[in-house]
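[step 3/7] fold_predict: job queued, chain A
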Amino acid sequence: DSECWQYTLRSRWWLKRGLLALVIFLLVPCLQRTLPELIQHLVYTHRVRVPFFIDLSRPSDLSLNHTVNMYLTSEEGISLGVWHTVPESKWKEAQGKDLAWYQNTLRDGSPVFIYLHGNTGTRAAAHRIGVAKVLSALGYHVLVPDYRGFGDSTGEPTEAGVTTDALYVYNWAKERSGDSLVVIWGHSLGTGVATNAAVKLHEQGRSFDGVILEGAFNTKGQEVPTFTWYYWRLPGSGYLFPDPVEENKALFPSEENLKKMTCPILFLHSEDDHLAPIQTVQEMYELAVTAQNAERVKMVPFDGSLGYLHNGLYRDPHLPDSLQKFVLSL
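[step 4/7] structure written:
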């Protein structure tokens, strides 16, 4: 009797867990089909607003004491939080100055960089602040927006939406910077946004002064890591378990975009990047060279032994030299 009772308990235990596993197995992909915002979060991870407890309206709290916070309206109902960091040489003069003073400095002849960050977090992430400081130390202006849905920006991110945001910030800067260079720096997801924006601008008969692609990815040649990969191996799973990227048009076709781009491009990539393999980026670089030429398209790899991975290139002591050479070539 005792053995029979134990067998019954074990059977119930396995039955409960089997039913739970079945529910999860069926529910997750169904939720993906019926709740597109879940896919949206998987692609952009915009709701993960790290670092926590940061007041994005106060960049000085993050040692950016020559930076102003502002909000730009990229389209009706969409407000973008943006930081403008002036060249480091102006930090004393910048103390206590208002938004109008910061905007007027854009006409001082210094190059203007627009930094398009990757997914997850906000403009307050340590590596994003690190890039802003490197550029500011070189005497450049830096605009760092949070796309719609990121940080304190309103709305929800879509591929078309974040591309619109990037183009709006570019046009806003171009209108206020006179003849100064305006350079786009995209990192990770931001490289897809940058190439999308470059093609949109090209269709208008215009071109960026220069584009930097750091930690570039290519959705055509790379898997986008989500938790549904194992569903796609099952026969007939195409309908119930769609590819979240393809289904939601989050394509960012960088490879195709590079074939159409006409502006100078600089690839920056760490050999130990664990999210974007350098082999894929090498192929993208060669594609861009074929579309233009080796004078207008450059690539600077960083030795994997330095341990920069996906976000750490701003720490390299030789990075400023590479940036200056690129700017001087424009």
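[step 5/7] annotate
The chain has one domain: 56-224+250-328.
The two ends are 86 Å apart (CA to CA).
exit 0
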